[in-house]
Write a structure and sequence with these properties.
Largest sheet of chain A: 5 strands, parallel
Shape of chain B: rod-shaped
Structural class of chain A: alpha/beta
Number of domains of chain A: 2
Largest sheet of chain B: 5 strands, antiparallel
Number of helices of chain A: 8
Strand content of chain B: 15-25%
Oligomer: heterodimer
CATH topology of the largest domain in chain A: Rossmann fold
Largest interface: A-B, 31 and 36 residues
CATH superfamily of the largest domain in chain A: Response regulator
Number of strands of chain B: 14
Chain lengths: ~220, ~450
């Protein structure tokens, strides 16, 4: 799950980046509004966390530009501007959610989860349920038929992505783009390794390989 | 209280009156003395012409030849009289009839008048001569009362025209004062509009005398507005600048080192929360605009749906909000203020309500009535009583029920309204806000 964090306060970003990474997001962090305007269009982010009081360009303007250029990525506005007029301004500019500072870290994580599910039209439930697998995002562990399965961070991240796109054909490069941030080496072998580990833990048929095309989440039901 | 109008009127009328009296008195005195002088010389001439009528008769006796005198002396009570004394003989003019002409006192030409016949007032002259070897005294008198009557008439006429002129001048002056004070009245009206926010500066097309004042007021206004703007911006910047570090702090309490000491974590979080609430509340208070510019009014048709969306999105579980609106279009309150007020009321209701929230907006008499009811736990009876008794001021004891309500109470106080809490018909909290209706 690729996440773009646009936040000009270094101390806050220093807290948020590890928090988001712990929760299974591949995080890119930008400080300047102008950079954010460009980078969000160039990279396939799944979700964006946007501060409004940015150097270079105001967050509202950046958001308006994104929406004007038909960028549909879900945006959570994270700001100190807490009046209702500001909130409305944010929603009008195209924000999907609005969270004011200071916030509880769990609140941010929960809202991001809810937002991701909403954009994938998954019902608002506390556990992600697809293909006979239940994924507890808070504890980052899966269960198949009631039997708990422990997952590493990378495995959780990958499984969640598959479960949010059940039945879709996901190419290797697509997975690399959505699972790793810009800093990380995108080695396709790593993806292969993680997929094999998931198959070992959840069953061979969970993820189907389509030679030359990519992978498809089938779940344990079949 | 002193009045410019009264002062100007008193000044003008007083000085006109004083000048009028002085001029009238002087004119009167000049006229009087000129007439008396003229009459006195006339009398002297008369006296000399009578002297010429004294001749030595054929009998050798010096006598007054009455045929040589002015015929006016022969008409009884004609107003011209003489008494000529030669030695111990005396000739009296026929006009005297039976009356006496015997002035006493020191002789002053053009001076004292004596009472003459027929209520006449006589001006007299007594001169002694020597003629034809005899000592002659000629006393002449002339009736001055017709001239006195004329003078009196002139005086009355003068007084009447003076009073008329004074009245006309006073009216003219009142008109001028009113007219020249009118720009002041207009300026006052504009200042009234300033305080309500309908206009932002005074009209500078005023009379030259008023222009510096108006310019100064505008200048002061700009200064104050800039100052207010600077303060608000500074406060907003400060609050924004504080919130990010607070967010950092709150994230820090999530670190393992703090997590393993729950007491420390709770204490830190409590302090952070207190700072946050304080900042939010003061910011909301400072932002209250209270102005009445129609371009920034709240529009129930366009603003409310957006607000409802934003309230819903602020809550993770969305409770449908039942709206009962009896008003449409613009409401004469600042958009931001009403958004803040309604937003906080609804947010609070969403936070505590379970399935049902109702928002009702209507106009009752001269009030805007906003009612928000929910089916949450409400405020316990004891605390509710406490809140009611203290009036609109909410303190920390009910802040658990939302910082939002405290912000609402602050806004309501700024607009001079009322906030009351009750048990809603759904069993939860019912909040009623009444704002006195404002004419835009």
């Amino acid at each position: 799950m690729r996440l773009l964090l646009v936040e000009d306060n270094v101390a806050l970003a220093d807290e948020l980046v590890p928090l988001l990474q712990r929760n299974g997001y591949a995080v890119d962090w930008l400080v300047d509004g102008r950079d954010a305007a460009v980078q969000a269009s160039d990279n396939p982010y799944d979700i964006i966390v946007l501060d409004l009081g940015l150097p270079g360009r105001d967050g509202i303007e950046v958001l308006q530009q994104w929406r004007a250029s038909a960028l549909s990525t879900a945006v959570l506005v994270l700001t100190a501007r807490d009046s209702w007029a500001d909130r409305i301004e944010g929603l009008k500019a195209g924000a999907d959610d609005y969270l004011t500072k200071p916030f509880h870290p769990e609140e941010l994580v929960l809202r991001l989860q809810a937002l991701v599910r909403r954009t994938h039209s998954v019902a608002n439930q506390s556990v992600l349920d697809a293909g006979g697998i239940r994924l507890d995002e808070a504890r980052q562990c899966a269960s198949v038929g009631g039997a708990p399965v422990q997952l590493t961070g990378s495995e959780f991240q990958m499984l969640r992505y598959f479960m949010l796109h059940p039945g879709s054909l996901l190419s290797r490069s697509h997975l690399a783009e959505h699972l790793y941030d810009n800093e990380r080496e995108r080695d396709s072998n790593v993806i292969e390794v993680h997929i094999n580990r998931l198959r070992r833990k959840l069953g061979r048929g969970v993820i189907e390989t389509r030679r030359g095309q990519g992978y498809c989440f089938r779940g344990t039901a079949e | 209280m002193s009045s410019i109008n009264r002062l100007l009127t008193a000044g003008v009328i007083g000085s006109l009156l004083l000048a009028g009296v002085i001029i009238a008195q002087t004119a009167n005195w000049l006229l009087d003395s000129a007439l008396l002088d003229y009459m006195a010389s006339d009398l002297r001439a008369e006296s000399r012409s009578l002297l010429k009528a004294i001749r030595r008769g054929p009998d050798g006796v010096v006598a007054l030849d009455s045929t040589a005198t002015d015929p006016a002396y022969d008409t009884p009570l004609s107003g011209r009289y003489f008494v000529v004394t030669i030695g111990d003989r005396q000739w009296r003019s026929r006009s005297l009839w039976d009356e006496q002409l015997a002035p006493t006192g020191p002789h002053a030409p053009g001076g004292d008048l004596v009472a003459g016949p027929n209520q006449q007032r006589l001006l007299w002259d007594r001169t002694g001569y020597r003629r034809l070897g005899e000592s002659v005294t000629v006393l002449v008198g002339v009736d001055y009362s017709p001239i006195l009557d004329d003078i009196r008439q002139i005086r009355h006429l003068l007084l009447a025209s003076g009073i008329l002129a004074l009245i006309l001048l006073a009216l003219l002056q009142q008109y001028l004062v009113r007219r020249s004070l009118r720009p002041l009245g207009l300026a006052r009206q504009q200042i009234e509009q300033l305080t309500t926010g309908t206009i932002t500066a005074l009209d500078e097309t005023v009379p030259r005398e008023l222009a510096p004042l108006v310019r100064e007021i505008n200048h002061l206004l700009r200064d104050t507005q800039q100052q207010l703007h600077r303060s608000r911006t500074a406060l907003a910047d400060l609050s924004h600048a504080l919130k990010t570090p607070l967010a950092v702090l709150r994230n820090l309490t999530d670190r393992d080192a703090v997590r393993c000491d729950p007491a420390l974590r709770d204490a830190m979080n409590a302090q952070i929360e207190q700072i946050r609430q304080r900042i939010t509340r003061e910011m909301a208070h400072a932002r209250t605009a209270g102005s009445r510019r129609p371009d920034s009014f709240f529009n129930i048709d366009t603003d409310l749906p957006l607000l409802l969306d934003s309230v819903r999105s602020a809550q993770r579980q969305a409770i449908p909000i039942d709206t009962q609106l009896q008003l449409t279009g613009q409401l004469p309150w600042e958009r931001e203020d009403l958004l803040e007020l309604l937003g906080n009321l609804l947010d609070n209701a969403c936070k505590w309500g379970r399935d049902t929230i109702r928002l009702a907006i209507q106009r009752r008499d001269d009030n805007l009535l906003i009612q928000v009811d929910d089916d949450g736990p409400g405020i316990p009876e004891a605390k509710l009583q406490q809140v009611l008794e203290r009036g609109e001021r909410l303190d920390q004891s009910v802040l658990g029920h939302g910082l939002g309500l405290a912000i609402v109470a602050d806004k309501v106080a700024v607009y001079g309204g009322n906030i009351t809490f009750s048990r809603s018909e759904y069993g939860g909290l019912g909040v009623t806000v009444e704002l006195p209706w404002r004419s835009p």
